[in-house]
């Protein structure tokens, strides 16, 4: 083949050696595992992350939620609008500071948490990794996240 080259395993630019490539493929794969679990709840994976944050800490301001999820408000806003439209949350002006938008769960949003409890064990089973292995992976990824911060 014209232009085709072979690379040995020691090549620092070999695709298979790139951390960014492995992380990208792993992220797509894991999100793909979540998709069929979330669809019956009417959630996308980014919306699920919003709900996880709210189940843990609601009520939250949009600013706090943005910080927790490491999403800019422009990306977060459409997610919140969609979750509000399907009845899982409310966005209201904060009583203590009218400049802030407070995000709270509705009864339906709170009740959804019970169904969501089935998701983590289903993901663990699908990945076929034991819990200590996944915890080590989480710890390593957390270190990568911290190291990659600007």
From TrEMBL:
Top-rank taxon: Bacteria
Location in the cell: Cytoplasm
A Pfam cross-reference name: MarR
Keywords: DNA-binding
GO annotation, cellular component aspect: cytoplasm
Domain HTH marR-type: 16-146
Main location as per UniProt: cytoplasm
SUPFAM superfamilies: Winged helix' DNA-binding domain
Keyword DNA-binding among record annotations: yes
MF GO annotations: DNA binding; DNA-binding transcription factor activity
GO biological process, any: response to stress
Protein's recorded name: DNA-binding transcriptional regulator, MarR family
